[in-house]
What we know:
InterPro entries: Acid_resist_chaperone_HdeD, DUF308_memb. The protein is mostly helical and about 180 residues long.
Amino acid sequence: MSTSVDTTAQTAWWMLLIRAVLTVVFGVVALASPGIALLVLVYVFASYAVLEGVAAISFGLRARGSHPHWGWSVVEGVISVLAGVVALFWPGQTALTLLVVVALWAIVLGVAGVGEAFAARGRGDRSWGWTLVGAALNIVVGILLLVWPGSGILTLLWLVGAFALASGLAGIGRAFRVRAAGTAG
């Protein structure tokens, strides 16, 4: 691994960890409070998506000098911020609208994550598998939400909560893998 990649890993791994921990917290809240009002869910989702997006953009921009595929993190971040802003400005929409926004966000984020995973694999990054797991979960959950839209907001909460929890746990594994790669040099 190059010295600049080592330096980025040593200084930025914690951003990946914060992003993943925010995802786990969001998942736990969604699973623990399935009776939550739709408006509260919209604001929780919107806040999470914006914060997660800002963290991804920040990580990508910090890694641009040393990471050849830094753009994937920026793409993921922009998608997340846009999804959060859409949810903030239209909170009164029906559960189906939220379901479609979340489903499309998860699918597009997953596709970007697959690109990021294979780019990481191509450069020999051993943490690419964690990235691929998170991306696959994003795509699967997005498709499930689109296939069964009439299942109701409770199902949406459980699916989104499970998705966030699993994706966050995969992200925590990735963050520590990046940290270990930065200290191994």
